[in-house]
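Tokens for chain A. Residues wanted.
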């Protein structure tokens, strides 16, 4: 059974504001976690993942936006499957980024492996790269029309990295530069 929860839907009460100190909560709201939650999470191909599951029969899936987001974050931070499962269950910052309630989350390594297979079958990494890049360019109001594209650089990195790792490395470097530039204000 499919479990999709619209990441754009806001909750009446934000549980993270209650369980975290005001300083910790503000840090989440200003960090990569909020950017991921507000700009990237809804661009992930959760509906494409949902096509693999029956709409009404069977055991409910994990929330599909959160699983697509976890796979993205797992590649971004270069986590092993067990580390990603632990982050899903125990790390409040990851739960905030994935728009999950922090109580009673469970996930095992095998579930992550199953979703990775689905990502590979549908070649969703390229779609994520295009959608996330377009969203970040729009949100940050960047003019990329004059940007120089070095195809040989991309080809050489493609030989070393898979699509998801190449995408996560590029976005990690971009977000690092973004956080280092304190003059830039995110919407």
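Reply:
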């Amino acid at each position: 059974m499919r479990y999709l929860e619209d990441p754009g839907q806001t909750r009446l009460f934000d549980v993270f504001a209650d369980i975290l100190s005001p300083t910790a909560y503000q840090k989440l709201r200003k960090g990569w976690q909020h950017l991921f939650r507000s700009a990237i999470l809804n661009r992930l191909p959760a509906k494409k993942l949902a096509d693999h599951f029956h709409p009404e029969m069977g055991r409910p899936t994990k929330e599909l936006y959160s699983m697509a987001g976890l796979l993205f974050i797992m590649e971004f931070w270069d986590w092993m499957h067990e580390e990603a499962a632990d982050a899903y269950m125990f790390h409040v910052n990851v739960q905030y980024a994935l728009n999950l309630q922090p109580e009673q989350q469970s996930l095992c390594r095998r579930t992550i492996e199953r979703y990775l297979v689905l990502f590979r079958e549908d070649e969703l990494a390229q779609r994520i790269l295009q959608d996330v890049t377009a969203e970040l360019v729009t949100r940050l109001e960047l003019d990329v029309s004059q940007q120089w594209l070095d195809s040989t650089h991309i080809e050489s990195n493609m030989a070393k990295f898979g699509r998801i790792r190449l995408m996560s490395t590029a976005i990690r470097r971009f977000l690092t530069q973004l956080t280092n530039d304190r003059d830039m204000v995110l919407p």
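Residues 39 and 135 are 7 Å apart (CA to CA). The chain is about 60% helix and 0% strand.
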